[in-house]
Amino acid sequence: MNSALTKDEKLTHCRGCRNDFYNHDGHAMNGTHCWSLDDAKLVTRYAIHFWTPMDTAKNLREVRVLNCYHEEGSHRTVYMERVPSHLAAEWDKLQREKGIESASRGQEGRR
Fold this sequence. Notes:
Blueprint: H1 7-12, E1 42-49, E2 61-66, E3 77-80, H2 88-98
Antiparallel strand pairs: 1-2, 1-3
């Protein structure tokens, strides 16, 4: 389902990652780029700000990021592989109300 991304396409998703530093002139390791870039894949994650309570699925947002992405700075967003189990039913209901088939189904137990 995921078509392979080119290096340039991957680089567009690196902005804000703490390792993006290595993708720029003069900072590249061994004259190349971030060590995760070659194997990086675009994936779906469920994002929530570090200080936001996980008491409602409305606080989550579905995003597409590289699987190696790590936000820099002290005010970080957490990128989870799946909707937390205590919010899964509410998330699915919200997605149905928006007319979106939920990607969180069937992911319980996947890591």
